[in-house]
Amino acid sequence: MNSKGLSVSKNAVRLAAVALHLLLFGAASWAWSEPSGGQGPRVRWHPRRTPAGVEFVGDQTCAQCHKQTVAAHAGSPMALAMEPVASSKVLIENPSMTFRTGPYLYEIKREGSGSVYKVTDGKETVSLPILYAFGQGKAGQTYVLEYEGAWYESLVSYYNEVKGLDFTIGAPRTVPESLRKAVGRRLSERDVADCFSCHSTGGIVAGKLKLDKMTPGIRCEACHGPGGAHAEAARKKEPSGDLIYNPRVLSGDQLSQDFCASCHRGNDEFGLLQSMELNNVRFQPYRMFHSKCYSDDRRISCTACHDPHEPVRTDAAYYDSKCAACHAPKGRTPALRTAAKSQAAERPCPVGTKDCVSCHMPKLGPPEAHFKFTDHFIRVVKSNEVYPN
Ligand code: HEC
Ligand code: HEC
Ligand code: HEC
Ligand code: HEC
Ligand code: HEC
Ligand code: HEC
Ligand code: HEC
Predict the structure, then answer these.
(1) Structural domain ending residue among the three candidates 186, 211, 229
(2) pLDDT digits (tens, 9 = 90+) for 372-389
(3) 53 and 91 share a domain?
(4) Which residue's CA is the closest to the ligand 6 atom numbered 7?
(5) Which atom of ligand 2 is nearest the CA belonging to 199?
(6) Domain carrying residue 92
(7) What DSSP line would sit under 140-205, residue for residue?
(8) Taking the complete model, does pTM exceed 0.85, yes or no?
(9) Does 213 lie in the same domain as 73?
């Protein structure tokens, strides 16, 4: 698919892919600026734009001092955003998967410490080693392949819900026109840079793919920038805090709509994301922006509810205190007294006293995604409501 030839199609599913794959590097225009005089102010760091000359020291270095953070982060979804094929849980636990569409038969098969992606039309067969497995597989996993000298995204993906293969989100769900098309979507250089900058660390430097420098998943320095100088100063017991970027300096809105949204997608892309209809439910910064709860307040920013260093909490009760930071539970003094838009927030919920998110953040998703995302547009959900784009 070609980004120039793209008009807003009615096919929202397809748009989901287009959105994910083609359009990136959001509007935020942060640049990496060298601290003046070597020790300067905290620079701003854009998680997806590693400028030329920047070297990462890797998580093992951070682990020398931030042992617990590194250990907790290792099991977090972001650290697992790309699985090395040799140790891929999904590929090891599913050693043989098949899928059929029209005359095409697909098979993903474990062979030694690798996996092979095979597609045949009954006469000819294309057989390719899987190079990269994208996604931890909580919803699904998609494969990146090399075919005839170009990069391809697999036409079929693994979905956890069905424990097997189906069309990749956004791929046309029709019988492919040729064996080549049946392999998947050919990725442009730009597509490849986009994929690797959202799912790995250090692999894209100054917009160019540097696979020898790539670490799968979102690692410490993807969010904190290069840590070499910080580590060295800390080792010498010199002041080191200013030599590493801490997103804590951002306001709530900057954190949500610029920083986390550089990968999770935010309101900067309003027009496109709105046109995706239900498919935009997976873009949390965008969804949250449209909630009445949303403001620059840190209590409603991404890190109010998610520690980016840990696995996501799935117990609804965990989030009650987050809501209570602004909404008074029945019989208690409201916390939001001083805020401008405080009146409705101060009224206690007339319906529930716990598990707030179970009613106000419903789980939704298009059937092809085989996954229900949590709608971050916090609201009163009416029965039979039309999904608010
Ligand atoms: C030799 C020990 C050491 C190593 C290695 C180290 N840190 Fe630190 N880190 C520290 C200390 C000590 C502080 C507290 C500094 C302060 O408050 O002045 C700190 C603070 C931080 C902060 C908060 C900074 C602030 O003041 O806001 C971040 C973020 C951070 N480290 C990330 C990292 C990352 C990422 C790595 C790996 C690239 C790393 N550190 C490697 C010792 C270390
Ligand atoms: C460099 C890109 C990038 C940045 C920046 C980023 N994320 Fe993520 N995040 C991802 C990717 C990719 C995944 C999907 C991992 C997977 O499921 O395979 C993810 C997954 C998550 C998940 C868990 C999803 C799940 O289903 O378990 C949470 C929660 C999350 N991110 C929160 C945040 C927050 C909060 C921030 C900002 C502090 C942030 N992310 C910044 C790329 C990023
Ligand atoms: C703009 C950043 C961005 C780009 C570009 C991107 N992704 Fe993602 N991807 C994410 C984020 C954030 C998530 C987690 C939220 C979600 O599931 O949408 C994710 C989730 C996924 C998942 C589901 C993971 C799970 O937990 O089940 C797969 C599979 C995936 N991406 C594959 C790809 C592939 C393949 C490409 C390139 C062809 C790609 N992505 C490009 C940001 C991106
Ligand atoms: C997805 C982005 C992301 C990743 C990956 C990430 N961090 Fe952070 N980190 C943050 C954010 C955001 C904050 C500030 C939290 C807040 O908003 O209060 C932070 C804060 C910190 C702090 C300072 C804590 C404080 O109290 O200010 C340290 C230390 C730190 N991170 C270390 C690490 C280490 C070590 C790793 C790798 C294991 C890592 N981080 C990976 C986003 C990330
Ligand atoms: C008020 C609390 C709250 C805030 C703020 C919040 N989230 Fe969430 N988030 C949740 C809940 C609840 C879940 C569902 C957890 C579960 O049950 O799996 C969730 C799940 C997720 C997931 C997993 C995929 C999904 O849709 O279930 C991602 C990714 C995520 N959040 C990213 C973000 C980002 C990025 C931000 C900032 C824009 C953010 N969240 C802000 C409460 C919050
Ligand atoms: C930063 C403070 C803040 C947090 C945290 C917060 N809210 Fe709100 N919420 C508000 C404000 C402000 C309003 C709007 C009040 C008004 O319109 O006057 C609001 C409105 C609402 C409404 C009414 C929406 C509507 O469409 O009428 C609901 C429901 C709601 N919040 C639920 C929640 C739940 C559930 C959580 C936790 C997951 C939460 N809020 C977290 C500040 C917050
Ligand atoms: C069983 C589902 C359910 C649960 C659980 C629930 N709510 Fe509600 N909530 C509703 C419904 C339905 C309404 C709309 C009631 C109406 O308009 O008559 C509502 C309304 C609200 C409002 C708007 C009040 C107003 O006067 O405009 C807020 C704020 C709110 N809830 C917050 C919360 C918080 C915080 C929690 C957790 C302590 C919570 N809710 C738990 C279903 C629920």
Answers:
(1) 186
(2) 999 999 999 998 899 998
(3) no
(4) 293
(5) 12
(6) 83-186
(7) EEEEEEEETTEEEEESEEEETTTTEEEEPTTS--S--SSHHHHHEEEEPHHHHHHHHHHHEESSEE
(8) yes
(9) yes
